[in-house]
Amino acid sequence: DAGVTQSPTHLIKTRGQQVTLRCSPKSGHDTVSWYQQALGQGPQFIFQYYEEEERQRGNFPDRFSGHQFPNYSSELNVNALLLGDSALYLCASSLTRGVSYNEQFFGPGTRLTVL
Amino acid sequence: AQSVTQLGSHVSVSEGALVLLRCNYSSSVPPYLFWYVQYPNQGLQLLLKYTSAATLVKGINGFEAEFKKSETSFHLTKPSAHMSDAAEYFCAVSPSEKLTFGTGTRLTIIP
């Protein structure tokens, strides 16, 4: 059973550029959440997607946007990159209902470096 | 708003000694509480979760945590530390769909 997968593993961009990160959820999961983890910090919630719509959003600017596809996979897009966007971006998948409700399984992350 | 506070950004214990990692939460509604572990250059792995079924929760790798409403605490313990337990540990609260994490505790095991 494949867990949560993310691509790419590492990415280097320059300020002002745009980036797209990708996530495939754990088999059977219908909900995808994205988190930003700065060095030495805990993960911060960016947003969550369910049924191809953004269901909840954290305190992140509109430069951060996302998408969920019919197969439940998801993308995170960041426009006009800033140095402060350098972080590990984590994708987590979960089920919206059932006994495992809100039990989030995390992928290995994408390390984004903005120069 | 919901939040968690992890007391002690770094904890060192000797191999075979008790591990105690502290977490206090703040939530306006009955919370779901979680402990995750993160090894270097990896994502987060769920150790255990509290969902109101039982106050003492057993997780993987010999870890357990006790929910104490009167103290708003959810401390993580393991009776005997192993070298492989060295990692970063995060407590998280979730009354809804999103997780709110603490700042983490780095656990070092002394041989």
Structural description of this entry:
The complex is a heterodimer of chains A (115) and B (111). With 115 residues, chain A is an all-beta fold. Helix content of chain A is 0%, strand content 50%. Chain A is built from no helices and eleven strands. Chain A is globular, with a radius of gyration of 13 Å. In chain A, 37% of the residues are buried. Chain B has 111 residues and is mainly β. Chain B contains no helices and eleven strands. In chain B, the strands form two sheets. In chain B, strands 2, 4, 5, 9, 10 and 11 form a six-stranded mixed beta sheet that branches. A five-stranded antiparallel beta sheet of chain B has the order 1-3-8-7-6, with no helix packed on it. In chain B, a hairpin with a 5-residue loop joins strand 4 (32-38) and strand 5.
Q: What is the count of β-strands of chain A?
A: 11
Question: Order of helices and strands of chain A, N to C?
Answer: EEEEEEEEEEE
Q: What is the general shape of chain A?
A: globular
How does the helix and strand content of chain B classify structurally? mainly beta
Give me the strand/helix succession of chain B.
EEEEEEEEEEE
* Radius of gyration from the alpha-carbon trace of chain B, in angstroms: 13 Å
Topology of this structure?
The complex is a heterodimer of chains A (115) and B (111).
Chain A lengths: L4 E3 L2 E4 L5 E6 L6 E7 L6 E7 L2 E5 L6 E5 L5 E5 L8 E8 L10 E2 L3 E5 L1
Parallel strand pairs in A: 2-11
Antiparallel strand pairs in A: 1-3, 3-8, 4-5, 4-9, 5-6, 7-8, 9-10, 9-11
Chain B lengths: L2 E5 L2 E5 L4 E8 L5 E7 L5 E7 L5 E3 L5 E5 L4 E6 L8 E8 L5 E2 L3 E6 L1
Parallel strand pairs in B: 2-11
Antiparallel strand pairs in B: 1-3, 3-8, 4-5, 4-9, 6-7, 7-8, 9-10, 9-11
